[in-house]
Please model this.
Amino acid sequence: MSASRVGSLKSLTLGALLVGGLSLTSIGVALAQDAEVPAHPAHIHDGTCDDLNPAPKETLSFVSVLMSDSDDENANTPQGVLTAGRVLLSTTEGVELSMEDILADAHSINIHLSEAEIDTYIACGEIGGVPVDGDLYIGIRDVNGSGYSGVARLSEDGDSTNVDIFLTEPTDESAPATPAS
Ligand SMILES: [Cu+2]
Model:
């Protein structure tokens, strides 16, 4: 994956996003729709990552690069260190499972390579841990040597749950020369 491709996010914007609690619409950004930009399907599945029910239980938003929807043609030009790894995001509100139900059985967040290659998994994390004030953070780890890993946050919202995923894309330096099969 070339680091020179468009879609890197200004660190200032990411900082504002994190402070703003991921209110994506309020600062004029959108997840990329461009076919050039990776969009990885993500779901909640039954089971653990090593013993996953392949049928998705709940569909989450695609994991993709955050891009400005500004008319400025330079708005999505990478700045700063151009070899910096990109971060892919997924934000899903109103997943129709309560935190209680999610934690009552084994569930995992699984991320697939693409819709066309849905059988190829690139990252996965079991949902478990200590929820604090309705928020549970979990690790998302590399699957099949993809080089993708990250974090997800599940936030209790009444009887539903909001899910945010942050996935780091492998850089040329971090990607294995020969991906494990
Ligand atoms: Cu899935």
Notes: Residues 42 and 111 are 4 Å apart (CA to CA). The chain has two helices and nine strands. The first strand starts at residue 29 and ends at 31.
